[in-house]
Design brief:
This protein is α+β, with helices and mostly antiparallel strands. Among the domains are: 58 residues, Roll (SH3 type barrels); 87 residues, SHC Adaptor Protein, CATH 3.30.505; 41 residues, no CATH class. The chain contains five helices and ten strands, in the order βββββαβββββαααα. Strands 4-3-2-1-5 form a five-stranded antiparallel sheet, with no helix packed on it. The longest helix is centred in the last third of the chain and has 10 residues. The radius of gyration is 26 Å and the shape is globular. The protein starts with 71 loop residues before the first strand and ends in a 15-residue tail after the last helix. The relative contact order is 0.10. GO terms for molecular function: ATP binding; non-membrane spanning protein tyrosine kinase activity; receptor tyrosine kinase binding; signaling adaptor activity. Keywords: SH2 domain, SH3 domain.
Length: 289
């Protein structure tokens, strides 16, 4: 999630005071440990440095109709109100943004407590956005990703996704692994973008969105994630669906890692036009008395 390091205004028309600005917990030097692949109800415990405060409390101005953005945000971290005009929340809470006209403090409606007030904007992300995912780290380099993942409390298979340092449209998947003779280490994989907006790691399997890609690979466990990425994961033939073997073999050809070995669209069109699936019901003699 993109957050400004500087440039705080001296006047906040929505009531947020400059002195009450809260440091971004995801910026370098503030986040002390990785918070990766944890269930959303589990709070993210962050130590928020004490900030000097003004003696007078800011006044929360009512949001005009034109200011309301009608967007829902999700809390990325815990926050405890420091002023009577603030709204407390825990990681995972949902809030409607009433006024986001100021860069540092947004006025929101907490959708559970129904409390209205101010929150630090850098503690939330738009619902269902990549930035709202626990596994996504915007401001983390390859080297920093390795340090975060190698923390002792993170088990083998723990991973995070970060923007690529070389491809402005791509991402990188960093995974904690263990091997005999090498111990714990971190492997990095390129998540490449498609022209149509999708993403892939292995060329034989593409996904429409980044969360869809992560969901597919994170359904596996630990070492299996790395092994399957290296080998090129292929969907197995479903057991609960009568898929003909000939169709499944053709699907495997379409997923071949070598593009030259994949069938052409012309071949596929001709194949399915002429393909006939028949099901014959055995003839039964009528019962005799």
């Amino acid at each position: 999630y993109k957050k400004a390091d500087t440039g705080l205004s001296s006047k906040h028309s929505n009531g947020g005071s400059l002195d009450r600005y809260t440091a971004d917990p995801n910026q370098r030097g503030v986040q002390t440990r990785a918070d990766i692949i944890r269930p959303r109800p589990t709070p993210c415990k962050l130590q928020i440095p004490h900030q000097p405060r003004k003696t007078s409390s800011p006044v929360v101005k009512p949001a005009s109709h034109s200011q309301r953005s009608n967007k829902i945000v999700v809390a990325l971290y815990n926050y405890t109100a420091r002023e009577s005009t603030d709204v407390s929340f825990v990681k995972g809470d949902r809030m409607e943004v009433l006024d986001d006209s100021e860069p540092d403090w947004w006025k929101v409606l907490h959708l559970t407590t129904l409390q209205e007030g101010l929150i630090p904007w850098n503690f939330v992300a738009v619902e269902r956005s990549v930035e709202s995912e626990d596994w996504f780290f915007e401001n983390v380099s390859r080297k920093e990703a390795g340090k975060l993942l190698l923390v002792d409390e993170n088990p083998r298979g723990t991973f995070l996704v970060r923007p690529s340092e070389h491809n402005p449209r791509g991402y990188s998947l960093s995974v904690k692994d263990w091997e005999e003779g090498r111990g714990h280490h971190v492997k990095h994989y390129k998540i490449k973008p498609l022209d149509n907006g999708g993403f892939f790691i292995a060329t034989n399997q593409t996904f429409p969105t980044l969360p869809a890609l992560v969901m597919a690979y994170s359904s596996m466990q630990g070492r299996e994630v790395i092994e399957q990425i290296n080998k090129g994961y292929r969907m197995p033939k479903p057991l609960n669906h009568p898929l003909p073997d000939s169709i499944y073999r053709l699907m495997l050809q379409c997923w071949d890692a070598s593009p030259e070995k994949r069938p052409t669209f012309e071949f596929l069109n001709h194949y399915f036009e002429s393909f006939n699936v028949t099901s014959e019901i055995p003839y039964l003699e009528p019962p005799t008395d």
